[in-house]
Write a structure and sequence with these properties.
Number of strands: 15
Largest sheet: 9 strands, mixed
Strand order of the largest sheet: 14-13-12-11-7-10-9-8-15
Amino acid sequence: HSKSMKALPRRRFIRQTLSAALAAPFISTAVTRALAQAAEKKIGFALCGLGSLSTHQIAPALQHTKNCRLTGIITGTPAKAEKWKAQYNIPGRNIYSYETMAKMADNPDIDAVYVVTPNALHAEHTILAAKAGKHVFCEKPMEASSEKCQEMIDVCKAAIRLLAIGYRCRFEPHNLECMRLAREKVFGDLRIIQACFDIHLDLPPGAWRFNKALSGGGALMDVGIYALQATRFITGEEPIAVFGMETKTDPVKFKEVDETVVWQAKFPSGVIADCSTSYNSSLVGGYRAVADKGWFQLDPGFYYDGNRGRRSDGEEIRYPEVDSLGEFYQFAAEMDDFAQCILGGKATRVPGEEGLRDLKILTAIYKSIRTGETVKLG
C-alpha cells in the first residue's frame, strides 16, 4: 500500500514532465526566453552604509542568496568605495555618496537599497532611496523616533515602494518553531515569557552607538529590541502596559545611552513578559516561554547561528541543516524573502508598521524609566 502511495506522485510527475516536453515545441522562442529570464531574475541591492554589519555579514550573505545580487554601494568614505569596488566587482556608475543618492533614479541595476547606517539616519536614507524609485530594506531599530518611522512608511507608500525592516529572527527556523508552539498551544496557554539579550560592547568612546543623537538609545534600542520582538511574536499580541528600570555601572562610557535595562510588559491575554538587556555583560541572548502545561526555550535564540532550544517534554528544537549554512543564513533568508515580495508583488511579514510598533513600545519603556511609573499603551 505504501509503495503505491509513493508511486502516484512519481507517475503524476512523469506524466506532467512528458506533457510539458511535448508542448515545448509549440511555445515561441520569445516566450521561452521571457520565462527563463523571469526564473533567473535577481533583485539588485545597493548597500547604504559600509560598516561592520555590511562588511562582515550582509555583503557575504548576499553571495548565498537565490534572488539577490550586490549591484551597488552608498558610502561617505572614498577608500571603502575603492575596496568594495575591487572586492565585489561593482561598476563605478553604481557607487554613490549619501549626497548623490537621488541619482540612483536613473540606474536600472539597483532595485532595492539596504539601509545600514546609524539609527537616526535611517529615515533620511530611506526617503532618498524611495524617492529615487527604489524599494527599501532597513536595519533595526527602524529609526530613533516613532515620528521618523511614520515618515518612512508614508514616503514609501507615496512612492509605491516596499519597505521592510531587518528582523532576521522572523526568518529563522528555531524562532518560527517557537512561534508555532505558542500559537498552536502545544503546551497550553502561555503564562510568562522571560527574554534577554546582553552583550559586552567593546567599542572606542567616540563610536556612534554611544552617541544618543545618532543611536536614539543604548542597549535597549540595539539588542533589547530582540527580546521585545520575541515577546510580541511569541504571544501574537501587543503589550498593554510596560514598566522599566535602568542601571549604570560605567556612567562615563554610557553617559548618553542606557547600559543595562530591565522591563516588564503585560499582554491582553494576561501573559507577563520579564525582559532584560545590557551593553556591559557577558554574551547571552534567548528566551523561555512558560505555559500552563509545560515550557519551551531557545538558548541561544538571537545569535547569527548556533541557535537551539529545548521543550519540557524532553524534545530538542534544533535545525542542523541551518547551522551548516553558518552565520550568513538569516541575512540571506530575509533578503531572499524581500526579493520574492518585490518580484511577486506580495506583502512582507516585516513591514515598516512592525518597526513603528517596536519604537512606540521602546519609547514607552524609556518613559517609564524616567518617571518611575507604569506606562499604559493604547
